[in-house]
Specification:
The protein has helices spanning 5-15, 21-26, 53-70, 118-135, 138-144, 259-265; strands at residues 37-38, 71-85, 91-102, 106-116, 151-161, 164-173, 181-188, 194-201, 209-221, 224-236, 241-256. With 270 residues, it is of the alpha+beta class.
Length: 270
């Protein structure tokens, strides 16, 4: 199909910036990062490196529940950046956002500053904030949680990296939910927290998208694991590509439960 530059620009602005980037960003939250992953005391992990996939997922699920109960509120700053190169022309933008989270599912976003393409700011960045609120609803949280109801897991490795020893599991979504992904996760062997995600959306969000690769990294903040960097590359059928990233910084955990309650709730299965 041949598109004139004007039509192509309209289609790119309508379909590409809003829908394809949305599920990418949500991959950063489906692991539970929206409320953080709590740490468990050293020494609780049995048989280091010897658990099977089911045991790792059971412990990870247990930690998911514990973190939801333990982290009541936090605030942070995010820096959104996107650069698109390709037909009919390039676009780039950046936006700084202040975030406040309040349990069990309230988030407030305050746009501090923005620069660059108004199309990107309005149809990508602001849509992401709306989409995050949608994914954060209770019913959607059930559909996107990393557990055995939504994914099939296979243990593919055990690595000792800069972030410590981790189990590596491959994930295959059981449904083509737009908020799910297929790929790999790295799970810390002692704290059963996800420290890294690599993957792609389970469902292609638009005909105009050829493929998307996503990576999310996490950092320990006062015994809670929270996202520190999200990066995705999206290839467009018209020949362009988008480089999208989110930097998370200035975390402050403003309301938490005593660590003893978290520990008792998260003792790993044996």
């Amino acid at each position: 199909m041949h598109l004139t530059p004007v039509v192509a620009l309209k289609n790119t602005a309508r379909l590409f910036p809003s829908s394809p980037i949305l599920p990418l960003m949500l991959c950063a939250f489906i692991s539970g990062a929206a409320v953080g992953q709590t740490s468990s005391p050293p020494g609780e992990s049995p048989h280091a490196g010897q658990l099977n996939a089911e045991q790792v997922v059971e412990n990870l699920t247990r930690m998911n529940l514990a973190r939801a109960q333990a982290l009541h509120s936090y605030q942070s700053t995010r820096v959104y950046r996107l650069e698109y190169k390709g037909f009919p022309g390039g676009r780039s933008a950046a936006m700084v956002v202040s975030v406040k989270y309040q349990a069990p599912g309230t988030k407030e976003f305050d746009i501090v500053s923005s620069t660059g393409s108004k199309v990107v700011i309005d149809r990508v960045f602001k849509k992401l904030l709306e989409g995050e609120k949608e994914a954060f609803e209770a019913e959607n949280q059930k559909r996107i949680a990393i557990n055995q109801e939504n994914y099939e897991f296979t243990l593919v490795g055990y690595e000792s990296g800069l972030r410590g020893p981790s189990y590596v599991l491959s994930l295959n979504p059981k449904t083509k939910n737009k908020f799910l992904f297929r790929g790999k996760i790295w799970v810390d062997e002692e704290q059963f927290a996800i420290v890294r995600i690599e993957g792609e959306p389970a469902k292609n969000p638009s005909f105009w998208i050829k493929g998307t690769k996503i990576e999310t990294l996490y950092v320990n903040v006062n015994d809670f694991w929270l996202p520190t960097h999200n990066h995705s590359i999206t290839a467009v059928r018209l020949g362009g590509h988008a480089d999208f990233s989110i930097e998370y910084k200035d975390y402050q955990t403003t309301g938490t439960s005593p660590s003893s309650k978290v520990s008792s709730a998260t003792e790993p299965s044996r």
